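hey team, just a heads up i'm posting the complex here instead of the shared drive bc the drive is being weird again. everything in one block, sequence lines first with there labels, then the predicted structure for the whole assembly after. its two chains so it's a bit long, scroll down
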Amino acid sequence: MNARQVVVYDGEFPMHRGGTLLNPTFAYETWGALNAARDNTIIIFTGLSPSAHAASSPKDPTPGWWEDMIGPHKPIDTHRYFVICVNSLGSCFGSTGPASMDPRTNEIYRLNFPVLSLEDVASAGREVLRHLDIEHLYAVIGPSMGGMTSLAFEVMYPGMSERLVLMSTGPRSMPFSMALRSLQREMIRRDPDFKDGNYPPHHVPLAGMRMARKLGMITYRSAEEWRLRFGRERTPTDQAGGDPFGLVFEVESYLEHHAKKFTGQFDPNCYLYLSRASDLFDIAEHGATVEAGLAHVQAEKILIIGVKTDFLFPIYQQQELADGLTKAGRQVEYVALDSLQGHDSFLVDMDSYRPIVSKFFS
Amino acid sequence: MNARQVVVYDGEFPMHRGGTLLNPTFAYETWGALNAARDNTIIIFTGLSPSAHAASSPKDPTPGWWEDMIGPHKPIDTHRYFVICVNSLGSCFGSTGPASMDPRTNEIYRLNFPVLSLEDVASAGREVLRHLDIEHLYAVIGPSMGGMTSLAFEVMYPGMSERLVLMSTGPRSMPFSMALRSLQREMIRRDPDFKDGNYPPHHVPLAGMRMARKLGMITYRSAEEWRLRFGRERTPTDQAGGDPFGLVFEVESYLEHHAKKFTGQFDPNCYLYLSRASDLFDIAEHGATVEAGLAHVQAEKILIIGVKTDFLFPIYQQQELADGLTKAGRQVEYVALDSLQGHDSFLVDMDSYRPIVSKFFS
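-- predicted structure starts here --
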């Protein structure tokens, strides 16, 4: 059973950097109930890869990607709040993206999809709210790429939300993470099976996707965690099988196993578009500077959580957000965590995150 | 003109992890002159990619990879010391490696080259010294992979050297850098032009090599340096040319340019062997533990320089070396630098390195 709901946009949906989508679909899931005042909604924008299935529900009891965070009496308490998680526009889990059919051509968009921006992902979220007749939000929450989407939402629809939660994100992408993402895209695009984006559905550029995922996994965690977790352990049986460069160390075997698991699910073209959308985001485009951009954010209370071992959105970017938003007159709570799990901490170090989020919402 | 000299080993050169090489060649360059006591030699083991051409000389006036460090009145003063730099066994700049002809088969070794260890690279250095009739060293110097080779040399030939300089290295490879190297190898091996190592010399797996080099460049420097250097600058002319995922940002263009420059020079099979040799190195194999391994080092005075922004050999590994060698009774000077240039600092932040090395050798 699937808890996914969809809004079909009526007409031409304008894209931030030009072009339109005809009648696009925006997928989402919800938990809890809207109150009579229609002001208890929390909307969640996701990182690059998750679907809208952030938590289980009667309609779909499978665990969601943020199962520990969302539910009755959990930090994002579905007894009190109406929680919406949106599958990003451009993704491939129900929302329109490069893997969808373009109704104007009756062909899959592929690389004819217009340039995707996180502003478009935010607009799609706004359409979901309009469809549900919600004009006021209790909070917007965004981890990672979703944090940048949340910032876009805040500057595009100022005053809609009382609160804002940003996790492991930044006011814009910086060259280290852009270089990593550029290389991930290159791995996919150089896979002979990519065929300039025209791969058949049953023959996607798997090798490129797996390597891109491995690089993601390497940079989503931290060197220190891996030191403690794998050390220099060898694989129990020699999986190399005569190959002088086969898998020998546990850490290699771990990457291979998890990369294989991931890459059956995510459409390569969608990955490319969302990856580039992350690179393109810069709050300074909504003002002359980062500070001027952040000054448009009107949420009264803001929680910022960063992790000191994060490679992709380093801790100084969390500080930059906290400083800019404080200067703009917002009430900011800034937490810098020592979690070992790097960028992924918000997904795994729940013992650190639960109490902070609970307190912010209580 | 080439300043390269070679030693041809007479007979079967035994490899640390099994197998032998028949009549291998060890390439090296020298600067300065051996004194009458034959005790003023400094031997340098290199990182993964450099040749033995560490500095210019009358025979080869082109600048070397450590030009600022080696020469008359420079920190490694060729008026005082006889300096030898060895091209690593397994490399492709004069020393025997996977790109060399196997005299037993009259075919290029390729993946039939035996497993390469840094212990073998150290042994080859020992053979160069034997050939030059040098039984006593003033110092052994090794940055990066060369630091691990230097440690191997120290434990295999204890007491030969008075001093030891280790830069941006560690007592063994840890899973974060091993994962990165494993992925670099995969990029090369999955390039269709790799052909299981049997690529023709004019058609090497260039795309894979370039991606591996890009990942190297990303991890050799630091996020902070790139932030200051590139920010979010775009390329002056749009190099994308209609390609939705072409080069847009300066950082992408920089990587592309430098990766292209590198990959004409280095043989892919040699790269794979040296990369794996780095993974395999563990001083604990020369004792039950890292500490026991380090206890075999007998150089009296040791200089250890590390950089706080180094991803590949993080600063804690420098501390681990300093602690272990101090505990073993060695006289250790440990410097932790704030250089922005990450792992590559020893090649570029010369204003920080010169005075430290000068002082150690004066």
